[in-house]
Amino acid sequence: MEVAEEKTRRLEFGRYARANAYHKGAKPKEFDFLGMTFFCGKTRHGAFKVKRKTSRKKLRQSLAQFTDWIRRCRNLVPTGELLRQAKSRIQGHLNDYAITDNSDRCQQYMHLTRRVLFKWLNRRSQRKSYTWDGFLQALRHVGWPQARVRVNLNPFAVLNG
Predict the structure, then answer these.
(1) What ranges do the domains of the chain cover?
(2) Which residues lie across from 48 on neighbouring strands?
(3) I need a labelling partner for 43 at 20 to 30 A (CA). Which of 68, 81, 84, 92 fits?
(4) What 3-state DSSP class applies to 35?
(5) Cα(93)–Cα(145) distance, rounded to whole angstroms?
(6) How many CB atoms lie within 10 A of CB 122?
(7) Are 35 and 55 contacting, i.e. CB atoms less than 8 angstroms apart?
(8) Sign of torsion, CA 50 51 57 63?
(9) pTM exceeding 0.90
């Protein structure tokens, strides 16, 4: 096996990486792997922790796929079925990315997909299909998923139960 030089790099990563980078006047290093950005962080108690969030590239790509899908299907599928299909797409994204330390990016994805869905549902005719309140009520009726952590990656978390 050979290592691809353009995809390989060494970076300082660990307990003191953030402090060392700030002393040098630079930002701490991050890296992307499997659609996630890994970065150095701290727990609530100040201990070092490797944190993960959805990479910008993957977030944009997922949003673009959702937008493309809703543009194609908005006039072909009845509204109730369209909302159920959108719900399952959102649920699939959350199943993959709703992990410890990634709730902000999941909330961002949920917000952006709601806006896209509202926009394209209201572009089906010259008349608006939904007001924002009516749209949110329809989402509640369908059982729109919540962006909450599905997989806890903290090995030292105390389990309640």
Answers:
(1) 5-53, 55-142
(2) 42
(3) 92
(4) coil
(5) 11
(6) 16
(7) yes
(8) positive
(9) no
